[in-house]
Amino acid sequence: MSGADLSHRNQVGGLFRAHYPWLCARLRRQLGSHSSVEDIAAETFTQLLESPGLTPIREPRALLTTIAQRLIFQLWRRRDLERQHHDQWLQLDPHPTKSPEDLLQLTQALHRLDRTLERLPGKVRATFLLSRIDGLTYPQIAAELGISQRSVSVYMTRSQALCAQHSANEPLNRLPQTQRSA
User: In terms of domain of life, where is this protein from (predicted)?
Assistant: First the structure.
């Protein structure tokens, strides 16, 4: 480990010790859910730790708030995606008589899809979510993220390939075992 890496880790560690409780309290007012608060706060510091060449921060709380707010937006988009998939599933069967086991399988499949999307780098994932959840066009996404339309196209191709791979391994719209035998 280089001296710069150690210095960076020490700086983020100091920020964590000084501002983690404050960030959790701020997020708790916004989110309410204790587990979501801790997840967002931890991911905020993880992103700081993973950022290369962190320069001295004059306003650490402003930076932490900005990162956390982006993570909250991603959480909300992910929840919208889950709702959208659930609604599509209900359209296939408008009168669901799903057992708790079937609902558990659906929830687990959605969580696996979420973990699949988490494997994408930030801008690729953001591009995909802005397109699929928010319905933005490629030019709108490019303006929103400050990237070229070509990058949007490349990112969408990459994210769609990952989703296709996920779908091949885990189709969401398959009939539960109990209904197939009927």
Answer: Bacteria
Per-residue pLDDT tens digits for 63-106: 999 999 999 988 888 888 888 887 877 777 666 566 788 788 88
Q: Assign domain 97-182 one CATH number from 2.30.30.60, 3.40.930.10, 3.40.50.300, 1.10.10.10.
A: 1.10.10.10
Residue 37, classified by CB atoms within 10 Å of its CB into exposed (0-12), middle (13-18) or buried (19+), is buried
Give me the half-sphere count of Cα atoms (radius 13 Å) on the Cβ side of residue 57: 16
How far is Cα 6 from Cα 12, in angstroms, rounded to an integer?
10
164 to each of 138, 156, 157, how far by Cα in Å?
20, 12, 10
- pTM (two decimals): 0.50
Domain range list for the chain = 1-75, 97-182
Answer yes or no: are the C-beta atoms of 52 and 2 closer than 8 Å: no
Contact 89, 167 (CB under 8 A): no
Q: What whole-number distance in Å separates Cα of residue 22 and Cα of residue 61?
A: 9
Residues recorded for the chain = 182
